[in-house]
Amino acid sequence: MSGPIYVITDPGAPLDLATQARAAALGGAAWVQLRDKTASDADLLALARQLLPEMRALGARLVINDRVEVAIAAGAEGLHIGQGDGDVQAIRAQIGPDMILGLSIETLDQARALPPGVDYIGAGPLRATATKPDAAAPIGFDGLAQITRAVSVPCYAIGGLGLADIPALKAAGVAGMAVVSAVTRAPDPQAATQALLQEWRL
Ligand code: TZP
Ligand code: MG
Predict the structure, then answer these.
(1) For residue 129, how far is its CA from the centre of ligand 1 (angstroms)?
(2) Which terminal CB of the chain, N or C, has fewer other CB atoms within 10 Å?
(3) 40 marked as binding residue
(4) CA 91, 92, 98, 101 torsion: positive or negative?
(5) pLDDT tens digits, 106-153
(6) 3-state helix, strand and coil shares in percent for the chain, rounded to the nearest 5
């Protein structure tokens, strides 16, 4: 479907969101998700509109977290929602057939009940992470492999992941890895993204 490296922005990281997104795309991320639970819709929309042509030029897909209206108004490539963000099929109807829809999956039961209309899943947290302290219980690599096998769409692992996890992630059969702090809190986010991609390609 796309490349393996999926970078998610963090308003708590040292660089601003636009700089994080650019660094990720320049480093070879196939996916850049704008995630900022605190920004207003208007601010997030303005940022998405600004970034979209830049991300496209760099070959990265821009995905909006949570905000259906912002994703539609921006014409973003994708929308990512969680289990509590509403009815998946209603959201699919709202965004139309072409926008990529990602869904967070936290358990094997959720994977088995994956509704139609979802293009990829984010599975996790793989392990506990300070970035999302309220995340569900960690699934571990065995849980990840089971979830991956239970769905027919690409699976991106998330939660506490870094460079050293890549061999085990590949062995679990996932399409890629989604990271926040491994890139956004790295001293050089572009180089950190590049390193993930290089390791993935080994
Ligand atoms: N969903 C599950 S874990 C997580 C999200 C958004 C945060 C992952 O952040 P990090 O810094 O890559 O552990
Ligand atoms: Mg959400």
Answers:
(1) 6
(2) C
(3) no
(4) positive
(5) 999 999 999 999 999 999 999 999 999 999 999 999 999 999 999 999
(6) 40, 15, 40
Distances in Å between the Cα of 51 and the Cα atoms of 24, 150, 186 are 12, 34, 21
The verdict on ipTM greater than 0.90 is yes
Which of 64, 180, 183 for a ligand 1 pocket mutation test, highest count of atoms within 8 Å of Cβ? 180
User: What is the rounded distance in angstroms from the CA atom of residue 104 to the CA atom of residue 18?
Assistant: 24
Question: What is residue 2's predicted lDDT score, i.e. its pLDDT?
Answer: 84
**Which amino acid would we find at residue 165?**
D
Distances (CA, A) of 26 to 6, 19, 109: 13, 10, 37
CA angle, 178 then 179 then 185, to 5° = 165
What confidence tens digit (pLDDT) does each residue in 174-184 have? 999 999 999 99
Cα–Cα distance measured from residue 149 to residue 154, given in angstroms and rounded to the nearest whole number: 10
Query: Any idea where the domains of the chain sit in the sequence?
Result: 5-201
Query: Cα(112)–Cα(181) distance, rounded to whole angstroms?
Result: 29
Quick check: helix, strand or coil at residue 104?
strand
CATH superfamily of 5-201: Aldolase class I (3.20.20.70)
CA distance 103 to 176: 15
Please give the number of the atom of ligand 1 that sits closest to the Cα of 178.
12
Residue 151 tokens, joined: 């769905």
Cα of first residue to Cα of last residue in the chain, in angstroms, is: 19
Confirm if 159 and 125 have CB atoms less than 8 A apart: yes
